[in-house]
UniProtKB/TrEMBL annotation:
Name this polypeptide is given: alpha-1,6-mannosyl-glycoprotein 6-beta-N-acetylglucosaminyltransferase
Keyword line: Coiled coil, Glycoprotein, Glycosyltransferase, Golgi apparatus, Membrane, Signal-anchor, Transferase, Transmembrane, Transmembrane helix
Catalytic activity from the UniProt record: N(4)-{beta-D-GlcNAc-(1->2)-[beta-D-GlcNAc-(1->4)]-alpha-D-Man-(1->3)-[beta-D-GlcNAc-(1->2)-alpha-D-Man-(1->6)]-beta-D-Man-(1->4)-beta-D-GlcNAc-(1->4)-beta-D-GlcNAc}-L-asparaginyl-[protein] + UDP-N-acetyl-alpha-D-glucosamine = N(4)-{beta-D-GlcNAc-(1->2)-[beta-D-GlcNAc-(1->4)]-alpha-D-Man-(1->3)-[beta-D-GlcNAc-(1->2)-[beta-D-GlcNAc-(1->6)]-alpha-D-Man-(1->6)]-beta-D-Man-(1->4)-beta-D-GlcNAc-(1->4)-beta-D-GlcNAc}-L-asparaginyl-[protein] + UDP + H(+)
Source organism of the structure: Pipra filicauda
InterPro entries reported for this sequence: GT18_cat, MGAT5_Glycosyltransferase
Keyword rRNA-binding: no
PANTHER family given in the database record: ALPHA-1,6-MANNOSYLGLYCOPROTEIN 6-BETA-N-ACETYLGLUCOSAMINYLTRANSFERASE B, ALPHA-MANNOSIDE BETA-1,6-N-ACETYLGLUCOSAMINYLTRANSFERASE
Gene: MGAT5B
Pathway: Protein modification; protein glycosylation
Entry coiled-coil feature ranges: 253-280
Length: 796
């Protein structure tokens, strides 16, 4: 008995000594159990997350038999521990260890052991319950996995007339799904079901699968609540957004800093003019594609070597205007940044974006447009209505419409985008089919203007152009010799070590000048003379703004894509009659003289007259900071290419019962053209306002652009939809023996010699450009603000 008691005491002591480590062991078992359950069950729930493959459940379920065995062994182990602790407790009850105060180890020392036994028993019971529940979950999952496996093997291409392209797209996926990693990113694994899931949930070529309702993609997040735009008063944040690392970016930042005070004053004036009108803040991405490494970025290395700066001047001004108007901007000059901002999935660009486009507007150029199309997949077609393309020379509708351009020979490397033509934004207002974006020139106050006039040197001329290649123009010696008789000629041709041999010795060449020094040179000079190239740059406007007279060559015949290499391949048929048509047409004498350089007498007479003529510095309002802010504000507020659509075309034939609504147009009092009837209703949301519309009939050799200009108006392509009706011919007393609907960028028009009338079948082809000697065209014209040709009188 004593021996037994001694052994019992030894066992109890050992048990007490090991209680603390045993607690740690039990906690470890519990932690291991929790981790195991999270691992085992996590896969079951993770397969239900958006974007995971529906077939991952099957893979995880197959390993669950081993999981159930581990849980059972853990439960058995805990039950065995509980039984052994129970034996120890019964053994101690048989000793005299519990008697009175004589015990060496008081009873309260065993209270933790008893509590620990209860905890172990509870844990064992919980693990047992969990094992049963996990077993049930895994059995259900295995059953669902078998069902899913059956569905996976049994998916068939649906025959739904609402989705006619589904079968063809599935066939394409079978053959090409491995051609781009983006398909695997969206869960495609080579099975029919994965093809259909992708084509119905990521793209939209196939109908949704009924059994996929519970795992369908979550709806798009609600649109952001509108935030009111507020005019900005500090350009420092914009300079940070532009970034560093390229000479072109440094040039743009210097320009913004130089014009900062003029921009801020203009913003305050426009804010007062708008009188607190509500303006929604837009989230805008500016992607300057021609500065990306992928496009070659030929401009940045040439910034300091006399290269063309017109595009960078315009982009700097666009950035300043958008920022000062209070919009939220993101600026990118790399393809990697573009992909990140857009949400492009990994791969080669064949799949849509991973999330809705976070930008209301995207300003880019042709290079950026191409990059977006390559990397946005089907999302490009969905979101292209938000794009605005900065396009120096313009894109006419005949070149923009892909099918028409291909069939009629108008296809070029830069056209065929099927955008609304007004989504293209030009440097000068030479193409009414496009929107006029423009740029700004530095404004002078009255004191500065008077100082310039008093310091002018009437016998000083500056040549337009910084590259030596400009001086290689054939025939220049003749008119330069005449000019040298009357004026001292200055040049700003770039060179590194020695004077360019192309520049004659009598020309005083200053080399490439910083902008402020070039401005000082212009403020002294009387004449700024062009050699015929470059076309339509900003320098002539800067010269005129600094009090110079601009002398340029008249082209006969006009330069175009048909006869001049520079314009070949550009998406325009425009005929350029001089080096700077805007200066010729919108400014003119006495500030601009356009003469035939091959006619020595005409050239010499022009030089003599210019020397005697006093001119004040002049800058058109549309090229001031306020003019550009006003114009961009109007575009952002009123141009919406995502929701606005042209009304349906009238049917070719009408039944006697069909009554056309009365025409909103009426004959003008002098019976020469049509105007909007005062009695006709007017949509208050229509822009430009329809009250500015006038309908004129062109001559056979005139475009609508020319026709409207001859009447002191501007062609407005958005009004073509009001002219594209048979009754308009009747109102203009035009006889139509037949009327046809066709795709032709010259329609609506009439062939008067045969009394055949034609209406436009494709609204994207409504165009102010183009003529044919066979047709007289119906032309929509509107009025415009003095000095702001982009806006009608009531457009702001």
């Amino acid at each position: 008995m004593i021996t037994v008691n001694a052994d019992g005491k030894i066992m109890v002591r050992r048990c007490l000594v090991t209680l603390r480590p045993f607690r740690i062991f039990v906690l470890g078992i519990g932690f291991f159990t929790l981790c195991f359950l999270m691992t085992s069950l996590g896969g079951q729930f993770s397969a239900k997350r958006l974007g995971d493959s529906p077939f991952t459940i099957r893979t995880e379920v197959m390993g669950t038999l081993e999981s159930r065995g581990v849980l059972r062994r853990m439960s058995d182990m805990l039950e065995m521990l509980m039984k052994r602790m129970d034996i120890l407790a019964r053994l101690e009850n048989s000793t005299d260890f519990h008697k009175g105060d004589e015990t060496r180890f008081p009873l309260d020392r065993f209270q933790p052991a008893a509590g620990l036994m209860e905890r172990i028993q509870a844990i064992a019971q919980n693990v047992s319950d969990i094992a049963i529940k996990v077993d049930q979950i895994l059995r259900n999952s295995l059953l669902n996995g078998k069902v899913m496996e059956g569905r996976r093997d049994q998916c068939e291409v649906p025959r739904d007339p609402k989705y006619p392209d589904c079968a063809g797209k599935v066939e394409w996926m079978r053959a090409r799904w491995t051609s781009d990693p983006c398909y695997a990113f969206f869960g495609v694994d080579g099975t029919e079901c994965s093809f259909l899931i992708y084509l119905s949930e990521v793209e939209w070529f196939c109908p949704p699968l009924p059994w996929r309702n519970r795992t369908a993609a979550a709806p798009s997040p609600p649109p952001r609540p509108p935030v009111q735009a507020a005019f900005q008063s500090d350009l420092a944040h914009l300079l940070e957004l532009i970034g560093t690392g390229k000479e072109s970016l440094s040039f743009m930042k210097k320009r913004i800093r130089h014009l900062a005070q003029q921009w801020l004053r203009a913003a305050r004036r426009l804010e007062q003019k708008l009188k607190g009108r509500q303006r929604d803040q837009k989230h805008i991405l500016i992607h300057i594609g021609f500065l990306t490494e992928e496009s070659g970025d030929v401009f940045s290395p040439r910034v300091l070597k006399g290269g063309p700066l017109g595009e960078m001047v315009q982009w700097a001004d666009i950035l300043a205007a958008l920022f000062l108007l209070g919009h939220s901007l993101r600026v990118t000059v790399s393809l990697k940044e573009l992909q990140s901002h857009l949400g492009v999935p990994p791969g080669r660009g064949n799949c849509p974006l991973t999330s809705p486009l976070p930008f209301d507007l995207i300003y880019t150029d042709y290079h950026g447009l191409q990059q977006m199309k390559q990397h946005m997949g089907l999302s490009f077609k969905k979101y292209r209505c938000r794009v605005r393309v900065i396009d120096t020379f313009g894109t006419e509708p005949a070149y923009n419409h892909e099918e028409y351009a291909t069939l009629r020979g108008y296809r070029t490397n830069w056209g065929y985008w099927n955008l609304q033509p007004t989504q293209f934004m030009t440097m000068f207002p030479h193409t009414p089919d496009n929107s006029f974006m423009g740029f700004v020139s530095e404004e002078l106050n009255q004191t500065e203007k008077q100082l310039i006039k008093s310091n002018k040197v009437s016998s000083m001329a500056v040549v337009y152009g910084k590259e030596a290649s400009i001086w290689k123009l054939q025939g220049k010696e003749k008119f330069l010799a005449i000019l040298n008789k009357y004026m001292e000629i200055h040049g700003t041709v770039y060179y590194e070590t020695q004077r360019p041999p192309e520049v004659p010795a009598f020309v005083k060449n200053h080399g490439l000048l910083p902008q402020h020094e070039f401005q000082q040179l212009l403020r002294k000079a009387k004449l700024f003379i062009g050699f015929g190239f470059p076309y339509e740059g900003p320098a002539p406007l800067e010269a005129i703004a600094n009090g110079c007279v601009f002398l340029q060559a008249r082209f006969n015949p006009p330069h175009s894509s048909l006869n001049h290499e520079f314009f070949r391949g550009k998406p325009t048929s425009r005929e350029v009659s001089s080096q700077h048509p805007y200066a010729e047409d919108f400014i003119g004498k006495p500030h601009v003289w356009t003469v035939d350089y091959n006619n020595s007498e005409e050239f010499e007479a022009a030089v003599k007259t210019i020397m005697r003529t006093q001119v004040d510095p002049y800058l058109p309002y549309e090229y001031t900071c306020e003019g550009m802010l006003e114009r961009i504000h109007a575009y952002i507020q009123h141009q919406d290419f995502c929701t606005t659509s042209s009304p349906p075309l009238p049917p070719k034939t009408k039944s006697p019962a069909m009554q056309s609504p009365p025409s909103p147009l009426v004959l003008s009092p002098n019976a020469t053209h049509l105007v909007w009837s005062p009695r006709a209703s007017r949509d208050p949301q229509a822009w430009p306002p329809v009250g500015s519309l006038q309908v004129w009939v062109s001559e056979t050799r005139h475009t609508c652009t020319e026709t409207c200009r001859r009447h002191g108006l501007v062609c407005e392509p958005t009004f073509f939809r009001f002219l594209n009706k048979e009754e308009v011919f009747l109102q203009l007393s035009i006889t139509c023996d037949s009327t046809e609907y066709e795709m032709n960028h010259l329609y609506p028009a009439v062939a008067e010699n045969v009394h055949e009338c034609y209406l436009q079948k494709e609204p994207l082809l409504f165009s102010c450009a183009g003529y044919n000697t066979k047709y007289r065209r119906l032309c929509p014209c509107r009025d415009f603000q003095q000095g702001q040709v982009a806006l009608c009188r009531d457009c702001l």
